[in-house]
Amino acid sequence: MPEEEHPVVASQAPGGATLPRTAMENDAAKEMQRQIKRPPEDDAKGSDAKRPKPPPSPTKWWEDKATTLLIGVRQEQATLYDPKRRSFHCCRGFERDVCEPAVFDHEEESTARIARPLDTIPESKLDQLKLALNVIHVKVLASDVGFPVRVYGTVLMRDGLDFKCIYLFQRDRDNCQVISSPGEMLALTGPNRGPFEATTFYFEINLKIRGEEQIMDRIFCRSLIGQDYPLDQWTKKKEISSWLSTLEFAYRSVHYAVEATVGISILRGPRNFYGSLVACTSEDSNEMVLYDSERWGAVATYAADGSVALTRPLVVLREDEDLVLKVSSFGRGRRAKPRTNVLTVEHCDRLFNITQGRYKLQVTISWSGILW
């Protein structure tokens, strides 16, 4: 059974005389009266007032002060004194809202892709294709130590998709490229996808000259280029002087971008492909070298299926542009005149068979639209 409630009363002495209340009894009586007078609907308010406030929602990590300090530390670690420019420069890109500095690996290669086959994109969505950058070339304009130089290292890009490495050039010390004269291009192997949609696109250059011993290797170029989001379409050539070199970067902003991935197979002819493949577009005549056995001294041997490994297979262009391919084969003599076919490729084109000197070649093109 529930216990009966008893009112709080003052103590009584024998004979019925009331004794004065103690201080404790007075406090108890006041509390009882307060509980009786308080309306029931005030209970919730009273209890809420006594509860501790919930902790504030956690801040976004890129707004956290400790993160800001850590980014500063990592930027300091990536800062070098450039003797050519006589000043300190950070050589790595940082975006605080993309790469959390405590866990982000600046060496990790990007494997993310959003491009989808162009023929699966409805025509009504073609105006939603994204902006991308197309890299045309990287040239060595000058060397402070003369020519030839044996160059190795990396040239890479970062975009807004995952900020990881999109390699344009990547060679180790045992696979140097020999640059024999001013104006020669680096043998680009990338990008492997269209770099797209970044507040700032970053180019990171880390090139060295191979010496007789590894301890004699020297920094050829160590620098960072930032390119803000392009609001219009242009082709830009940018010079960067750093350490022992001057380089030229040529790249183009492409609105409503698509990727063209090019392949070559030898259907008949010698096992080694002595020739070249150069690309441009119907709107931009700047040439991109996809393969050249003479220029870079690397001759590809076709695989079991006849395919030839191109140095660089991918080109980014606008959705309404045509791709222009110049396919050349070299004769038997060292200076024999090359035979060249020029192919104008529309987006509906997938395959060409051409006869070129000693070779019968099959050129394939696969199209992808850069779209979320």
Automatic annotation (TrEMBL):
Domain DUF6598 span(s) in chain numbering: 133-364
Protein name in the entry: DUF6598 domain-containing protein
InterPro entries: DUF6598 (IPR046533)
Pfam families: DUF6598 (PF20241)
Region (Disordered): 1-61
Biased composition (Basic and acidic residues): 27-51
Superkingdom in the source lineage: Eukaryota
Lineage of source species: Eukaryota, Viridiplantae, Streptophyta, Embryophyta, Tracheophyta
